[in-house]
């Protein structure tokens, strides 16, 4: 899964070009063609900078050239700040000049109707034909704070040229991307690379993200998108970031119906089911942010670069009430809040008899009169409690008489525990906050926000620590037939793919059915087999619970009679004989195609659970066994598998194996599988496996691709 | 539901006393007995203030008295800042002096084990015996910013004496209450009354809340509690606040298992099921805050005093991306985001051809170059869109060149729409924020936080507008038997209470059963009737689907044989004959006792829905029909009642009537009903009503009360 040549070229040419030209360069630094030039000059970009403007001899003090081909030296990167009508010709000229990448600010493309979309299609075609990479059109640009390349006209930079930091940001929306950058700046977070992709005629958010995941200087990635077109590339980017230990926090909007509609009127991006995005983020360890604050809080928390692989939390408070509130919020976030070991509790009790030493540890406002209480307490919680993260609530820490002694006490208490997340919930002036931060503590005002961010960091750590990588699946050698397959053929194909299906025999006449039943064991079920009949119940094509030879003979005759009456034209291949199966939990396994991410495996309990309660979990295929187990435990109805209402626990391990096999099958047939359903798949008690009682496969015609 | 004499006395004496004494008054203003005196003097409390200290002639410049009875004039209110051991004697002396209320700062009571709890019990007994009201012990005190009564030792007031405002606050936790107060202060919100209740030997959070709900000067109420002991009083307080149009935002902690445990170790408050608290808040229109920020945001938003009874939302943005994000967040909050009417969209399109005029309305950054766009857009959205609330996202509004023109444009656009909620999501300096606020706009940085607060205000408005008040239910004249009642007796009692139950006949012998079956119509069900048998299935006491006289005779004999074999000692009253009922959705209705709030009605779909998925909704009894309908629509499985999977819609109206009847019955028997269950209650297709097929009532012995 190495990065492609094209992506590498994008990364090098867009973020680290040797030379830059500006088409439509303006002398006025507040105009769209003047602003980037002015920023680049102010930031001191090291390579040659060429303004291109046929109407002026100089622009902002530099020699101007009438066209890109008139520029004397080679040009790596071009900023296109021209009216839409001039863009295609200009971009062709750039390609002819050997330019490696352009960013196109111009609007008036796909967002403006069909003619614009056609022009944008031409831009994409130029990029594919020439290998020159294109960012935009209709985007706010890109910057690299490390080398002074500020190829953007966002007014947000008017408040000062950014200093490089650990964050890389990629956003479809320019205005929202600027807003995010500005929030980072206010929070003191350095953004190194900033990429807005706009209409994405060539470079997408996924590719921008992949570039940042590969970039050695980027440590944290923040992304915003309304829709993604290249799901596989996005997953590659996520997996690359995970392997490189880089947290990704993603704001994917259009979650709601009204939001999705607003998104589609705003850009022309493909929708894709929001549930599938949710699944992909979860599956690849990406944090899906729901609010902008949360996104920035998490970016802030990553400055510590500590990602515990566990999620046990210690809570310290000077207010019992705040302790309870934090315990609730920690529980909401899925933290474990285990009590301190008894000996540690005894030590705390000895220090302060009226402390609550369990966890939350309430050291009361007495802590402020007795600062060694704070340091000893932190030491005990981190050392003996062994918590992955500790959050301490001290309410207001204003005034140096409190702030400095508390800081010294905290510093002493956390020394030697640099591998833990230490956060404070305090209200304090900025200088105090900075001082605490410089000692390795994260500072939040609101404790709930602190816990959301800390939990995200622990989830990153858990994801980084995972060894359960996606299996490599080769495309299948043969194609599935491009049609709906009957139960027997569907089961045979799935059985060959390693899925457990109920044994069956095909009987051409009643006596063959009796013989088959005798071999399989009574009671049995008879089902009509016909390529023309998919819904067997509707035509009276099923008889269940047949307990002896006579019942089988009668059932066989009844089925044929009914089917011939109701569907006289149907081709009948015979009647299937299968054993009656029962004693287990009925589940449903399925595969659906997502337009963005490809085959997605679905799991649920079937019936009303799936149809009415929509209690299903999804995973993009393929996936490993640990992922399958997480998938099973995600549904609300999992209790039924764990042995609710007096039933024995079901064989969840066998179910996980079946899900993995189905994921591999779906991935191998990504191109030619339309849908697939095993319904029901009966999960038997532990140790007894699971088995599909019925199955339906639908192949996909090559024309549909 | 008028306020009681005792509560009135509390309100008058605690918040508006004519004179104040301080027991344990100290010269040192940083000590617990010095701090309130110093605050009161600084704030200029108008009545006489008497320090009591046997060891000093003066305290903080005032004449000190050796004991409370040595004080020359009458004393309304006393601050007790004494060691725990001296409290009881002092409080007795206060009562003898005719003091109306005391606040007891002292710790060392119920929070410190059994001896402390006993002493606290004595304090409660003094309050009940003498009528003198007691706040605390172990509390941080109380203040009324309007009259200078600062009977508290919270250090938070060191940062300045509060100015009165519209907020009343009541908190069990002193430290967290101080923290909340401080956050209000930072946000510029005035807190008029602040009450901390600590261990609650007499005055509880509920009573404090009731006082604030009655207080003419309090407009918004914020509360914090870990546990409530007097549920009915709390509900009275909520209902009073609702009737008086006062929003209540409540932080009830101990939601999670670990939080509840921390709460019980912190105070000795009764737990009460958290789901029931949730229910009570929802039922009485109280906003349950999950985070401190949310609590303060909502308090802030109430400064506008606009509570729309609807919840349609208009969204304005200069960034399409932010528009989508807000649409998602609005959807999460349950806002409707309907599109602007077509003519209004056409007007906007004429103003700015590349605007997205639907809703969210994207007026793009062009708005900043063309401010009339902002005012015309607001005018159109409020006038023609008719939205209850509008949120506008302008990202950063720094610098007066932007802030002032935008403010003027907004002011013009919203003129005449003072009944709507207008909020901005902007990043701006405090002075800019204040200026916008002074023009009637709410200002938030984060749009999601704005939407949470706006939605809370709309919910308040919806609750204020409700006419569906709780029915008044008199206690029932007769007591239920203090035992588990068999199905026939249970059904008879419930039928008398107006609940639909399946007709039945009691048959003493087989021929009587046949006659009954003939009268009721075949097929029928037979069930054993015995006061000693509650679980009829276990003893073979039920036969279903009996289609003719012969089957009834055989069934009768089989039941008697089986029951006599399995439970030879059981008294048999006969066999019930009931018609076979089917064709509808099976539900379960129940009543459970909550230790805090009394009888709670439960509704669900029964079976796995109730047991495995816990898909039930609750309401405290009694309640009206609208509330019953809300209760039905709260469960996830409601789709099954609305006609999922091809079934006809069920008679939800009849179901609501049954729930109301059950609520009235439960309320009338609040003292003598232990539990009750109608399981199943079959809800038939629309217009055909519902009927309980089985029922079980358990009466409560008077000793258990």
Automatic annotation (TrEMBL), chains A, B:
GO molecular function: ATP binding; metal ion binding
PROSITE patterns xrefs: ATP_GRASP
Assigned keywords, A-Z: ATP-binding, Nucleotide-binding, Tricarboxylic acid cycle
Pfam families, per database record: ATP-grasp_5, CoA_binding_2, Succ_CoA_lig
GO BP annotation list: tricarboxylic acid cycle
Gene3D superfamilies membership: ATP-grasp fold, A domain, ATP-grasp fold, B domain, NAD(P)-binding Rossmann-like Domain, Succinyl-CoA synthetase domains
Coiled coil: none
Domain ATP-grasp: 491-527
Keyword match Nucleotide-binding: yes
Record keyword Plastid present: no
InterPro entries from the UniProt entry: ATP-grasp (IPR011761), ATP_grasp_subdomain_1 (IPR013815), CoA-bd (IPR003781), NAD(P)-bd_dom_sf (IPR036291), Succ_CoA_lig_flav_dom (IPR032875), Succinyl-CoA_synth-like (IPR016102)
SUPFAM superfamilies: Glutathione synthetase ATP-binding domain-like, NAD(P)-binding Rossmann-fold domains, Succinyl-CoA synthetase domains
Domain of life assignment: Bacteria
Protein family membership: In the N-terminal section; belongs to the acetate CoA ligase alpha subunit family.
Protein name: Acyl-CoA synthetase (NDP forming)
Organism for this UniProt entry: Tistlia consotensis USBA 355
